[in-house]
Specification:
Layout (H helix, E strand, L loop, with lengths): L7 H11 L4 H12 L5 H5 L3 H16 L2 E7 L6 E7 H9 L10 E5 L2 E5 L4 H8 L5 H9 E6 L2 E2 L7 H14 L6 E5 L6 E5 L2 H27 L3 H6 L2 H12 L1
Helix pairs in contact: 1-2, 1-9, 2-4, 2-6, 4-9, 6-7, 9-11
The structure holds zinc ion (ZN).
C-alpha cells in the first residue's frame, strides 16, 4: 500500500476541488491527495494504469477492498450483482510479465515498425481540449516513431490493422488503464466484459462521504455551536457519538 489515509477535512477539500472537474482531472486530484510525496506534474506523467492502481489503493484505504457492483444483462435485462476484489485485480495486473513503468514499446506488424508509449493522465488531460475526436487524438499521442522499410510514416497515415496491434500492445502493457470485469449472467448464461471505471466509482463514494460529513457538521454545530474545523477535527468515533446526541 503506497497511499495515505485521508482525514475528514481532506475529504471535503478533495470533493470541493473535484466538483465540476472532468474525470482525468478528478483522477489527478485523488491520486495527488493520496500520495503527497509526488508532485502533481509527475503523477500526470505516469501511465494511466499506474494511477488507477493508486486509486484502487486509496479506495481500499478509505472504503475497504471489496467493491459491490451491478450490471444489466444485455440479453435478458436482469440486474447482475457482483463482488470485485480490488487487491486481487491489482495484483493480477501488476504481476504480468512486462514492463518497467517508463519503458517504451516496439510494435512490428505487416512491415511497419513502431515505437509507442503508454498513455498518461497528461495525455488524457491534453485531449480534453483537442479538436480531434478524443480516441483518435489519444492514439496519435501514443506513437513515438513509425517507419515502414526504413522510411518514416506519418502516424495519421497508419492503416487500421496497425492501430489495432498498437492498441493491443498498449493495453497488455498497462492493463489497469482499461479495466474490464468478466461477467456471466446467472439468469441466462450470457457472458460479457463490463468496463470498471475506478475514477467514477471512487468519486461517487467520496462525494457521498463528503455530503454525510457536511450533514454531521450541520447537525452538531446546530446543537453545540462548534465550528466546522472543530467538528471535522473530532475522531470519527467522537463525531458519531456527538451526532447521536445532537439528533436526540
Ligand atoms: Zn442474462
Amino acid at each position: 500500500m503506497h497511499v495515505r489515509q485521508l482525514d475528514a477535512d481532506s475529504i471535503l477539500r478533495l470533493w470541493e476541488a473535484g466538483t465540476g472537474a472532468t474525470p482525468p482531472r478528478r483522477a489527478l486530484l485523488l491520486v495527488a491527495a493520496a500520495t503527497p510525496a509526488h508532485e502533481a506534474s509527475t503523477l500526470a506523467d505516469m501511465p494511466v494504469g499506474w494511477n488507477v492502481g493508486r486509486l484502487m489503493e486509496l479506495r481500499h484505504a478509505l472504503f475497504g477492498p471489496q467493491l459491490a457492483c451491478t450490471a444489466v444483462c444485455a440479453s435478458c435485462g436482469e440486474t447482475v450483482e457482483l463482488g470485485v476484489d480490488l487487491p486481487a485485480i491489482k495484483q493480477a495486473s501488476e504481476s504480468l510479465p512486462a514492463v518497467e513503468v517508463f519503458g517504451r514499446l516496439t510494435v512490428a506488424c505487416n512491415g511497419y515498425e513502431l515505437v509507442a508509449q503508454r498513455l498518461t493522465l497528461a495525455d488524457l488531460l491534453a485531449v480534453e481540449s483537442a479538436t480531434e475526436e478524443p480516441a483518435a487524438a489519444l492514439a496519435l499521442r501514443s506513437i513515438v516513431t513509425a517507419r515502414r522499410a526504413e522510411t518514416p510514416v506519418e502516424p495519421a497515415d497508419l492503416p487500421a490493422e496497425i492501430w489495432r496491434a498498437v492498441e493491443e500492445r498498449l493495453i497488455a502493457a498497462d492493463p489497469l488503464a482499461d479495466l474490464r470485469l468478466e461477467i456471466a449472467c446467472p439468469h441466462c448464461g450470457h457472458r460479457w466484459l463490463e468496463a470498471l471505471d475506478m475514477v467514477s466509482v471512487l468519486w461517487n463514494e467520496i462525494a457521498a462521504l463528503a455530503k454525510s460529513l457536511l450533514f454531521d457538521v450541520a447537525a452538531i454545530s446546530r446543537s453545540f455551536g462548534w465550528s466546522e474545523a472543530a467538528i471535522l477535527a473530532l475522531s470519527p468515533a467522537r463525531r458519531r457519538a456527538y451526532l447521536e446526541l445532537a439528533l436526540r
